[in-house]
Each structure stands twice: as C-alpha cells, then as structure tokens.
Specification:
This protein is about 55% helix and about 0% strand. It is mainly alpha-helical. It has one domain. The longest helix has 17 residues. The relative contact order is 0.08.
C-alpha cells in the first residue's frame, strides 16, 4: 500500500479532488485525514528523523539544561 498526502486550503476543493481520486483504477480507499491522523503522521516523521541523529546521553541533556 502506498499513501499520498495532498495539502489543500479549501474544503470544497478537497472534496472534489477526493471524489476524482476514488474513480482512479487501483484506488481501494480515499479519505480526508482528521487532525489526529495528521498529528500521528507528524510524530512518525519526527521519530524517523530522530533515528538518524546521534544519540545523546542523559547527562549531556541535563548539562545543557543548566
């Protein structure tokens, strides 16, 4: 399964695009994401980015907070 995310300002345009996407061959489902789903996507992207960064010890974090 592949996911496509499209950002659209106007709700009326989003609904028309959604209906057109549903007509495409191979599309099994299409919906407008809720705020909670968008938040989950953002958290997953942040976690993925964090995995690629250097690990920092607890003592280094506490030292930086002083």
């Amino acid at each position: 399964m592949k996911t496509i995310v499209i950002n659209i300002d106007e709700k009326s345009n989003a609904e028309r695009i959604l209906e057109a996407i549903k007509l495409l061959k191979g599309v099994k489902g299409a919906s407008i994401a809720t705020d909670e789903e968008l938040e989950n996507i953002s958290i997953l992207k942040a976690c993925k980015a964090a995995r690629r960064t250097k690990k920092v010890s607890k003592s280094e974090v506490l030292k930086a907070l002083k």
